[in-house]
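Problem: given the chain below (181 residues), write out its structure.
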Amino acid sequence: PIQAQGVHYFGENGYPIAVRTIHEGMMPQHEHDLTEVLHYHDFAELVVVVKGRGLQRIEGTDYPVAAGDVFLLQGRQKHAFSKREGMVIFNVMYDADRLRLPEDELRRIPGYNALFLLEPSYRHRHNFSSRLHLERTRLAHAESILRAMLDETTKCSIGFEASLFGYLLELMIFLSREYSR
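Solution.
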Protein backbone atom coordinates (compact mmCIF):
# COMPACT_ATOMS: atom_id res chain seq x y z
CA PRO A 1 0.00 0.00 0.00
CA ILE A 2 0.99 3.59 -0.63
CA GLN A 3 1.23 6.17 2.13
CA ALA A 4 -0.77 9.33 1.51
CA GLN A 5 0.89 12.28 3.18
CA GLY A 6 -0.91 15.23 4.70
CA VAL A 7 1.33 17.67 2.85
CA HIS A 8 -0.42 16.63 -0.39
CA TYR A 9 -3.90 17.16 1.04
CA PHE A 10 -3.55 20.17 3.30
CA GLY A 11 -2.39 22.44 0.50
CA GLU A 12 0.20 25.15 0.32
CA ASN A 13 -0.90 26.77 3.57
CA GLY A 14 -0.45 23.49 5.44
CA TYR A 15 -3.42 24.03 7.74
CA PRO A 16 -4.20 20.49 9.02
CA ILE A 17 -7.87 20.37 8.00
CA ALA A 18 -9.03 19.80 4.43
CA VAL A 19 -12.36 18.78 2.92
CA ARG A 20 -13.15 17.35 -0.47
CA THR A 21 -16.04 15.70 -2.18
CA ILE A 22 -15.67 12.74 -4.52
CA HIS A 23 -18.20 11.70 -7.15
CA GLU A 24 -18.31 8.40 -9.02
CA GLY A 25 -16.35 8.60 -12.27
CA MET A 26 -14.56 11.75 -11.12
CA MET A 27 -10.98 12.10 -12.30
CA PRO A 28 -8.33 12.14 -9.56
CA GLN A 29 -8.25 15.60 -7.97
CA HIS A 30 -4.46 15.67 -7.88
CA GLU A 31 -1.57 13.34 -8.56
CA HIS A 32 -1.71 11.97 -5.00
CA ASP A 33 -5.44 11.12 -5.06
CA LEU A 34 -5.64 7.52 -3.87
CA THR A 35 -9.40 7.02 -3.47
CA GLU A 36 -9.47 3.67 -5.32
CA VAL A 37 -5.89 2.63 -4.55
CA LEU A 38 -5.09 0.73 -1.36
CA HIS A 39 -3.40 3.28 0.90
CA TYR A 40 -2.94 4.59 4.42
CA HIS A 41 -1.99 8.02 5.67
CA ASP A 42 -0.47 10.13 8.39
CA PHE A 43 -3.75 11.87 9.27
CA ALA A 44 -7.34 10.93 10.11
CA GLU A 45 -10.07 10.82 7.48
CA LEU A 46 -13.72 11.19 8.36
CA VAL A 47 -15.89 9.76 5.57
CA VAL A 48 -19.53 10.72 5.04
CA VAL A 49 -21.39 8.93 2.24
CA VAL A 50 -24.13 11.28 1.05
CA LYS A 51 -25.35 9.38 -2.02
CA GLY A 52 -25.10 5.94 -3.63
CA ARG A 53 -23.27 2.88 -2.40
CA GLY A 54 -20.10 0.89 -2.81
CA LEU A 55 -17.48 -1.13 -1.00
CA GLN A 56 -14.90 0.23 1.40
CA ARG A 57 -11.95 -2.11 1.85
CA ILE A 58 -10.40 -1.62 5.28
CA GLU A 59 -7.50 -3.74 6.48
CA GLY A 60 -8.25 -6.48 3.94
CA THR A 61 -12.00 -6.73 4.50
CA ASP A 62 -14.66 -5.31 2.16
CA TYR A 63 -17.57 -3.57 3.86
CA PRO A 64 -20.68 -2.38 1.99
CA VAL A 65 -21.36 1.33 2.55
CA ALA A 66 -24.30 3.47 1.47
CA ALA A 67 -25.76 6.96 1.76
CA GLY A 68 -25.91 7.96 5.41
CA ASP A 69 -22.89 5.97 6.54
CA VAL A 70 -20.24 7.84 8.53
CA PHE A 71 -16.94 6.38 9.66
CA LEU A 72 -13.43 7.37 10.63
CA LEU A 73 -10.29 6.02 9.02
CA GLN A 74 -7.36 6.36 11.37
CA GLY A 75 -3.96 7.08 9.92
CA ARG A 76 -2.39 3.66 9.55
CA GLN A 77 -5.53 1.78 8.45
CA LYS A 78 -5.09 0.50 4.89
CA HIS A 79 -8.20 1.27 2.84
CA ALA A 80 -9.69 1.98 -0.60
CA PHE A 81 -13.10 2.33 -2.23
CA SER A 82 -14.34 0.01 -4.97
CA LYS A 83 -17.57 -0.81 -6.83
CA ARG A 84 -18.93 2.70 -6.35
CA GLU A 85 -22.48 3.05 -7.68
CA GLY A 86 -23.71 6.64 -7.87
CA MET A 87 -21.58 7.36 -4.84
CA VAL A 88 -20.91 10.85 -3.55
CA ILE A 89 -18.71 11.13 -0.47
CA PHE A 90 -17.20 13.87 1.61
CA ASN A 91 -13.77 13.34 3.13
CA VAL A 92 -12.73 15.47 6.08
CA MET A 93 -9.01 15.01 6.50
CA TYR A 94 -7.40 16.33 9.65
CA ASP A 95 -4.25 15.88 11.68
CA ALA A 96 -5.35 15.75 15.32
CA ASP A 97 -1.71 15.91 16.44
CA ARG A 98 -1.42 19.37 14.90
CA LEU A 99 -4.78 20.68 16.12
CA ARG A 100 -5.69 21.66 19.63
CA LEU A 101 -8.95 19.77 19.82
CA PRO A 102 -10.79 20.15 23.15
CA GLU A 103 -10.35 16.44 23.91
CA ASP A 104 -11.52 16.67 27.53
CA GLU A 105 -14.81 18.24 26.48
CA LEU A 106 -15.30 15.97 23.46
CA ARG A 107 -14.68 12.82 25.50
CA ARG A 108 -17.62 13.74 27.73
CA ILE A 109 -19.89 12.90 24.79
CA PRO A 110 -20.25 9.09 24.82
CA GLY A 111 -20.73 9.04 21.05
CA TYR A 112 -17.39 10.77 20.53
CA ASN A 113 -15.57 8.00 22.35
CA ALA A 114 -17.43 5.37 20.34
CA LEU A 115 -17.22 6.95 16.88
CA PHE A 116 -13.79 8.57 16.96
CA LEU A 117 -11.85 6.34 19.34
CA LEU A 118 -13.39 2.86 19.69
CA GLU A 119 -15.25 2.01 16.45
CA PRO A 120 -12.18 2.26 14.17
CA SER A 121 -10.32 -0.20 16.41
CA TYR A 122 -13.19 -2.67 16.80
CA ARG A 123 -14.51 -2.43 13.23
CA HIS A 124 -13.36 -5.88 12.16
CA ARG A 125 -14.70 -7.57 15.30
CA HIS A 126 -18.15 -5.97 14.83
CA ASN A 127 -18.13 -6.50 11.04
CA PHE A 128 -18.55 -2.71 10.66
CA SER A 129 -22.04 -2.86 12.19
CA SER A 130 -21.03 -0.24 14.77
CA ARG A 131 -20.57 2.54 12.20
CA LEU A 132 -22.85 5.56 12.36
CA HIS A 133 -25.75 5.68 9.91
CA LEU A 134 -27.66 8.96 9.56
CA GLU A 135 -31.25 9.07 8.36
CA ARG A 136 -32.07 11.54 5.58
CA THR A 137 -32.74 14.75 7.55
CA ARG A 138 -29.75 14.24 9.84
CA LEU A 139 -27.57 13.49 6.80
CA ALA A 140 -28.78 16.74 5.20
CA HIS A 141 -27.67 18.64 8.31
CA ALA A 142 -24.23 17.01 8.22
CA GLU A 143 -23.97 17.75 4.51
CA SER A 144 -24.69 21.45 5.10
CA ILE A 145 -21.77 21.62 7.55
CA LEU A 146 -19.58 19.71 5.08
CA ARG A 147 -20.48 22.07 2.22
CA ALA A 148 -19.57 25.07 4.38
CA MET A 149 -16.24 23.39 5.19
CA LEU A 150 -15.64 22.65 1.51
CA ASP A 151 -16.33 26.30 0.69
CA GLU A 152 -13.78 27.43 3.30
CA THR A 153 -11.22 24.90 2.00
CA THR A 154 -11.73 26.05 -1.58
CA LYS A 155 -11.71 29.83 -1.06
CA CYS A 156 -9.09 30.07 1.72
CA SER A 157 -10.39 33.53 2.66
CA ILE A 158 -8.82 35.39 5.56
CA GLY A 159 -9.71 33.52 8.76
CA PHE A 160 -10.57 30.26 6.97
CA GLU A 161 -8.46 28.32 9.47
CA ALA A 162 -10.57 29.42 12.43
CA SER A 163 -13.75 28.81 10.44
CA LEU A 164 -12.65 25.30 9.41
CA PHE A 165 -11.70 24.50 13.00
CA GLY A 166 -15.11 25.69 14.22
CA TYR A 167 -16.94 23.66 11.58
CA LEU A 168 -14.84 20.57 12.38
CA LEU A 169 -15.83 20.84 16.04
CA GLU A 170 -19.47 21.42 15.12
CA LEU A 171 -19.41 18.35 12.87
CA MET A 172 -17.66 16.18 15.48
CA ILE A 173 -20.14 17.20 18.17
CA PHE A 174 -23.15 16.68 15.88
CA LEU A 175 -21.94 13.23 14.78
CA SER A 176 -21.02 12.27 18.33
CA ARG A 177 -24.47 13.20 19.59
CA GLU A 178 -26.06 11.25 16.74
CA TYR A 179 -23.92 8.23 17.60
CA SER A 180 -25.01 8.55 21.25
CA ARG A 181 -28.67 8.41 20.13
